[in-house]
């Protein structure tokens, strides 16, 4: 789930003369996470303390001069960098009062943008596509700058960004040329340039916005078209080096936004994490058009997760638009006469609990009271108690608990300590400490192969304060040690076991417990495919066995804890068959099993068709009854006694 | 007992109109009900919810709200007028233009000295209640936007006014608006629509409770003007609010047809001091908008678009299950809208705007009980007579020979001569009616069609002589009691000698029509008579009252008959007394003088006076049992009350001279099917 919190206004905006122009050129971070460097569309750079909504400093160029690129912060030298009148690079520190007195250098070509990111040196991207590190450029400002983009072909940059991976630095920029759009990926040190052609949208409309992010050693480029389509393209960080020419950039449709009538004018999409995209400047799917909303969409499920109406016109820039910035859990949106800051939160939910089949209600009752705390919510104080109290309780737990025995003590001592801790802590404390302890013990077990504390871990799991997402390695560790008791406990008590782990458990052992874990079909089937044929056959035989057992004494069956329901069994049979049907058909030893199942299905189909017939007859009977008197007039004979 | 041929008639398209407003007078226990057609009905809650009076509607009149001041009834409507009603003559006493555009609401302060109305032009106007009229006093500060709802603070010094998107609180002495409470709009698409505050109540502790078109019930602190609590109760509108007398409970009516109760209670047992308004119960007795509500001592009374009046008792107020603790739905009027010409086989249907005359069909031969006979001739609509003028028809009559037809509105009486000649019918209006015959509460023809009786003001009856050539005023019969109440029942004897009238004071007068003088007064019984009839041979007057009691009074001997005394001594069967609709018709079988025929909405009954009365142990509804018994066994199981429930939703039962019964049914389903579609409700799996 994603949430948009109550926003606040960072600053007012001056309306520009041109209606389509944004009053904001850019918003950048500096060394302080609570600071924002806002560059307006004309002459001023202002540094804000975001939480106080207070300007800390403001720098302006002289009248007649114009800032042509947003100011950025050089994280290595703690200086600010801005470009005025395309060619003049200015560098200053926070304590400098006047921009005019600051260092400046005039370069020989027009600058498009200066980009900076923590962990990397600022880079200068020139309008003709050349890239220089700021330092080297400033050491020889008048050095010749080559043209990457040809002047005659009228290829112009529309959007750019830079990405700093572990040891690599990338500058990404997109260009437009005669209606075609290209993506350039410039690697620095060693310098390589790769050019990709973006697939053309049917409407030939240019993309409205781009957003790039680094994930799993891949650069994910997310771009939005006026027809509401959000596409994603992936470029490998360690991509093919030295490939000549222009490559086609494959794309996948992540989201199709409802745009209402017509097309989007100014809109912008920015990726928040793997699953969530924030979109501004589009109408709300259920509201009237003509109003702009900030929406967070889940791209996995295509669902609207959170929305907020933005009063006033969303301001856009000419060309490729950038009308939303996203830093550290906050969205910056200029709209109307204000720049709003809207904190958001995208919780990484357990897919199973979000959408999957939930536990059998009879079993779930006792467990539904188990909170599934995530560290984020606890630490950020998203709890009714408020943040101060939580900090206090953390302190108290940490001071009370001696961590020493857990880190070095033998198994038996650990178990005793855990027992003592669990028996004295109150609920709130427990949730924090249990999670930490479990993680610690698991981490220790992973490091010290000789150490494994099944008793202590089982005790921790039994507190029902743990869940899978709190300590993801616990269940895997138990599997590794073939500690089926702990595995069973986890399967029983964790509400959020991912499907892949469920399948991993299946491979090792088949139990009641596995069948009862929540899951969602679509996500489980791919993992089920990992099972090999003998495993599947065994599992199906087991399912058939318990099915037959149940159907024999279906009337005498008492609700036993930890026994799967009929529906759960049938669901699993269906899933297994879905995943492995072709394999099973080929396997000779599955023949008997399949024919048994087939005869069962046949009998069920027959039963249902008979039931359908009975239903039809009953409905006919029902219809016959009132048809007796519907006439407006009749002469009848009655007899009274 | 025997077989009857029954004409089962379902072609009377009676359609009640929607309930728009109601006001309960706790002192007199009378509920005033205003309908969409401008008619007003008065129900006596102290006498089995009997519909005591009906003031007919008028085309130009509309009622948005009703209000009692003492025993006086006022209404206001979108025609911009305030009307006071003359409850003795069943007509508006006067109407006053308020000069504020359409009026949305009217309410009196608890002292009964002032009326406040809310107008379309944004004014709240105060009227002083004078002895015989009301007088405009002043306007409170005029607001932008209409005033939809009003509520006085019990002290009378402040008024809360529901408007568009807000509630205003006025200080009455200065006329200034002192608080402005902003009411949120709905969510999603309805955000652009103004929220209408349909209803407000102002409690003694200065709490204001409002219901609005965004489906919210909101509790406000009237001192500070702050919102205390919002209850979103429906996706549609909250239309009506009513607070109990002790201010511990508020009921709201919604467009979904639900009535939701809120109670001022402590949410936990431990903290009895911290009371708050908590949603407690939901009642769903309506299919459409609940437009009018009243929370009375022991019940919630509601009405709306689906035209029925529902009395939902609050069971915690009753110690045991009884007649009063049962849910009651009042769907049909407690008076006759169908008149039957017994000799001619004609039916007259009375609508507010027209009369319809029908000839019954005929069948061939005979059949077994339970059979439907083949029709030789279909029923035929002979006449569709539209009323003249704006006033709705309040009563009508058809002579038993089918030769005369009369109806009255509030302003005029019209009399017609009908001539049926095989298949032709001709109708002639009788031109010059006596000037004294201006309007009538009830009309009836003598059985030989030589006289017309018209119930007039102060329980008097005008006697008009009819002949082929002229119609002449003869005499005015006046009661000795000096009652000012209107006559609601009138019947005469077959021999033309006796005329009996009943008025809302429960008085029954018997006049000797030949001598043109009062013959006797039947001892007054505490419950209002709902039906009565004079026996064709014995001239005994049979009366059935709203409390279901039956009396038989010998007109000749001026005393109750022995059978009546026996019945009273033994008492009626509980199952008879438990019925919840009044008997609206009493008639007799001339061929079998022992039989009295009665009906209510749900049953038809023949009382055979020759048979023993049932005691409490007797199986009361015994027709099925009797049917299953052999001829020999049967006599020992017979009792006087023979009840047939085959026919439902009965508006009229009469016995033609050829011994066939006419049952006029109006299935409730047929009424429901003519209502507009209810608001769409999401049902599971749709």
Automatic annotation (TrEMBL), chain A:
Statement: the UniProt record of this protein carries the keyword ATP-binding: no
Ranges where the Nucleolar protein 11 C-terminal domain occurs: 429-510, 512-641
Keyword Acyltransferase: no
GO biological process: maturation of SSU-rRNA
Alphabetical keyword list: Activator, Nucleus, rRNA processing, Transcription, Transcription regulation
Span of domain Nucleolar protein 11 N-terminal: 1-344
One Pfam family cited in the UniProt record for this chain: Nol11_C
GO cellular component, one term: nucleolus
Subcellular location: Nucleus, Nucleolus
Chief subcellular location: nucleus
GO MF: RNA binding
Name of the protein this chain belongs to: Nucleolar protein 11
Automatic annotation (TrEMBL), chain B:
Species this protein is from: Oncorhynchus mykiss
One example of a Gene Ontology biological process annotation: maturation of SSU-rRNA from tricistronic rRNA transcript (SSU-rRNA, 5.8S rRNA, LSU-rRNA)
GO cellular component assignments: 90S preribosome; small-subunit processome; t-UTP complex
InterPro entries membership: UTP4, WD40/YVTN_repeat-like_dom_sf, WD40_repeat_dom_sf, WD40_rpt
Record's protein name: UTP4 small subunit processome component
GO function terms (MF aspect): RNA binding
Protein's gene: LOC110519996
Domain of life: Eukaryota
């Amino acid at each position: 789930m994603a949430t948009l919190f109550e926003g606040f206004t960072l600053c007012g905006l001056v309306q520009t003369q041109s209606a389509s122009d944004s009053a904001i050129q850019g918003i950048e971070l500096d060394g302080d996470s609570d600071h924002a460097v806002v560059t307006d569309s004309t002459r001023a750079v202002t540094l804000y303390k975001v939480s106080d909504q207070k300007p800390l400093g403001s720098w302006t160029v002289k009248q007649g001069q114009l800032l042509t690129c947003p100011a950025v912060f050089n994280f290595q030298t703690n200086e600010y960098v801005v470009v005025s009148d395309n060619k003049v690079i200015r560098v200053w520190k926070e304590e400098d009062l006047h921009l005019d007195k600051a260092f400046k250098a005039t370069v020989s070509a027009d600058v498009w943008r200066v980009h900076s990111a923590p962990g990397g040196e600022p880079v200068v991207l020139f309008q003709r596509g050349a890239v220089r590190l700021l330092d080297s450029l400033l050491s020889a400002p008048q050095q010749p700058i080559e043209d990457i983009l040809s002047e005659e072909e009228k290829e112009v940059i529309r959007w750019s960004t830079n990405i700093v991976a572990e040891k690599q630095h990338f500058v990404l920029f997109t260009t437009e040329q005669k209606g075609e759009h290209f993506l350039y990926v410039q690697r620095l040190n060693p310098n390589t340039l790769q050019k990709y052609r973006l697939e053309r949208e049917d409407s030939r409309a240019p993309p409205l916005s781009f957003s790039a992010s680094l994930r799993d050693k891949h650069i994910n480029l997310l771009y939005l078209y006026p027809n509401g389509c959000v596409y994603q393209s992936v470029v490998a960080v360690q991509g093919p080096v030295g490939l000549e020419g222009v490559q086609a950039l494959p794309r996948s449709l992540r989201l199709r936004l409802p745009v209402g009538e017509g097309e989007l004018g100014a809109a912008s999409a920015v990726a928040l994490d793997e699953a969530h995209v924030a979109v501004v400047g589009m109408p709300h799917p259920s509201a009237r058009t003509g109003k702009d909303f900030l929406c967070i969409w889940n791209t996995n499920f295509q669902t609207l997760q959170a929305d907020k109406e933005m009063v006033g016109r969303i301001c856009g820039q000419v060309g490729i638009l950038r009308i939303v910035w996203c830093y550290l859990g906050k969205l910056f949106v200029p709209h109307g006469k204000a720049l709003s800051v809207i904190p958001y939160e995208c919780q990484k939910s357990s897919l199973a609990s979000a959408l999957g089949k939930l536990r059998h209600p009879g079993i779930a009752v006792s467990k539904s009271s188990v909170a599934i705390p995530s560290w984020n919510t606890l630490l950020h104080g998203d709890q009714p108690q408020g943040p101060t109290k939580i900090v206090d309780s953390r302190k108290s737990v940490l001071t009370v608990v001696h961590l020493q025995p857990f880190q070095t003590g033998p198994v038996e001592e650990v178990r005793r300590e855990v027992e003592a801790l669990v028996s004295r802590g109150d609920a709130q404390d427990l949730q924090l400490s249990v999670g930490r302890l479990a993680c610690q013990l698991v981490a220790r077990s992973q490091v010290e192969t000789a150490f494994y504390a099944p008793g202590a871990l089982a005790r921790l799991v039994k507190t029902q304060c743990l869940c899978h997402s709190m300590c993801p390695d616990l269940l895997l560790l138990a599997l590794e040690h073939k500690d089926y008791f702990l595995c069973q406990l986890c399967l029983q008590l964790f509400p959020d076991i991912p499907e892949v782990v469920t399948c991993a458990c299946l491979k090792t052992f088949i139990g009641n417990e596995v069948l009862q874990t929540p899951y969602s079909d679509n996500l489980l089937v791919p993992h089920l495919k990992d099972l090999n044929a003998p495993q599947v056959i065994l599992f199906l035989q087991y399912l058939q066995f318990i099915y037959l057992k149940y159907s024999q004494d279906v009337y005498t069956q008492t609700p036993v804890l930890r026994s799967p329901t009929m529906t759960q069994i049938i669901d699993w049979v269906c899933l297994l068959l879905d995943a492995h049907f072709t394999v099973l058909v080929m396997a000779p030893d599955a023949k008997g099993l399949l024919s048994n199942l087939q005869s069962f299905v046949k009998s069920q189909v027959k039963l249902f068709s008979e039931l359908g017939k009975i239903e039809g007859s009953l409905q006919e009977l029902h219809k016959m009854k009132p048809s007796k008197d519907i006439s407006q007039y009749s002469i009848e004979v009655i007899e009274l006694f | 007992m025997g077989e009857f041929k029954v004409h089962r008639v379902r072609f009377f398209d009676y359609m009640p109109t929607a309930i728009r407003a109601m006001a309960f007078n706790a002192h007199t226990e009378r509920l005033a009900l205003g309908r969409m057609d401008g008619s007003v009905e008065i129900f006596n809650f102290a006498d089995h919810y009997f519909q005591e009076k009906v003031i007919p509607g008028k085309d130009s009149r509309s009622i948005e709200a009703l209000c009692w001041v003492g025993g006086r009834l006022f209404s206001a409507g979108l025609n911009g007028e305030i009307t006071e009603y003359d409850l003795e003559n069943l007509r508006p006493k006067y109407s006053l233009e308020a000069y504020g555009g359409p009026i949305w609401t009217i309410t009196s302060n608890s002292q009964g000295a002032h009326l406040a109305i809310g107008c379309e032009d944004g004014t709240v106007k105060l009227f002083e209640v004078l002895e015989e009229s009301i007088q405009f006093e002043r306007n409170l500060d005029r607001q932008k936007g209409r005033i939809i709802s009003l509520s006085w603070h019990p002290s009378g010094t402040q008024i809360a006014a529901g408007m568009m998107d807000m509630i205003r609180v006025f200080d009455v002495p200065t006329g200034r608006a002192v608080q402005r409470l902003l009411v949120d709009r709905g969510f999603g698409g309805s955000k652009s629509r103004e929220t209408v505050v349909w209803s407000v109540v102002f409690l003694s502790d200065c709490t204001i409770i409002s219901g609005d078109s965004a489906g919210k019930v909101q509790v406000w602190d009237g001192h500070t003007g702050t919102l205390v609590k919002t209850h979103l109760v429906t996706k549609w509108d909250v239309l009506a609010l009513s607070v109990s007398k002790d201010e511990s409970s508020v009921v709201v009516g919604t467009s979904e047809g639900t009535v939701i109760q809120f109670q001022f209670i402590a949410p936990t047992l431990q903290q009895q001091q911290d009371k708050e308004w908590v949603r407690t119960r939901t009642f769903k007795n309506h299919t459409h908008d609940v437009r009018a509500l009243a929370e009375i001592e022991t019940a919630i009374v509601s009405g709306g678009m689906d035209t029925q009046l529902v009395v939902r008792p609050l069971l915690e107020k009753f110690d045991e299950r009884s007649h009063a603790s049962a849910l009651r739905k009042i769907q049909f009027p407690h008076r006759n809208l169908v008149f039957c010409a017994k000799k001619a086989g004609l039916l007259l249907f009375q609508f507010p705007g027209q009369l319809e005359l029908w000839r019954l069909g005929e069948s061939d031969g005979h059949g077994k009980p339970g059979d439907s006979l083949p029709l030789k001739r279909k029923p035929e609509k002979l006449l569709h007579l539209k009323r003249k003028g704006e006033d709705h028809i309040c009563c009508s009559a058809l002579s038993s020979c089918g030769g005369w037809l009369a109806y009255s509105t509030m302003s005029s009486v019209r009399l017609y001569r009908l001539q049926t000649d095989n298949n032709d019918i001709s109708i002639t209006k009788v031109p010059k009616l006596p000037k004294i015959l201006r309007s009538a509460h009830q009309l009836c023809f003598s059985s030989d069609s030589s006289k017309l009786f018209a119930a007039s003001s102060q329980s008097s009856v005008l006697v008009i002589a009819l002949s082929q050539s002229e119609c002449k005023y003869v005499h005015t019969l006046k009661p000795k009691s000096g009652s000012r109440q209107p006559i609601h029942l009138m019947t005469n004897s077959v021999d033309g000698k006796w005329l009996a009238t009943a008025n809302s004071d429960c008085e029954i007068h018997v006049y000797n029509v030949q001598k043109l003088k009062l013959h006797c007064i039947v001892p007054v019984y505490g419950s209002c008579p709902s039906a009565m009839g004079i026996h064709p041979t014995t001239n005994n007057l049979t009366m059935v009252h709203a409390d279901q009691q039956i009396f038989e009074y010998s007109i000749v001997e001026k005393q109750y008959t022995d059978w009546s005394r026996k019945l009273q001594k033994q008492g009626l069967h509980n199952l008879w007394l438990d019925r919840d609709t009044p008997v609206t018709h009493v008639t007799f079988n001339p061929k079998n003088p022992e039989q009295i025929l009665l009906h209510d909405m749900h049953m038809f009954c023949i009382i055979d006076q020759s048979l023993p009365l049932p005691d409490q142990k007797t199986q009361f509804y015994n027709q099925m049992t009797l049917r299953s018994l052999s001829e020999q066994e049967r006599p020992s199981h017979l009792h006087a009350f023979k009840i047939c429930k085959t026919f439902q939703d009965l508006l009229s039962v009469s016995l033609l001279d050829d011994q066939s019964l006419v049952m006029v049914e109006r299935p409730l389903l047929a009424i429901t099917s003519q209502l507009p579609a209810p608001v769409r409700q999401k049902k599971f799996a749709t």
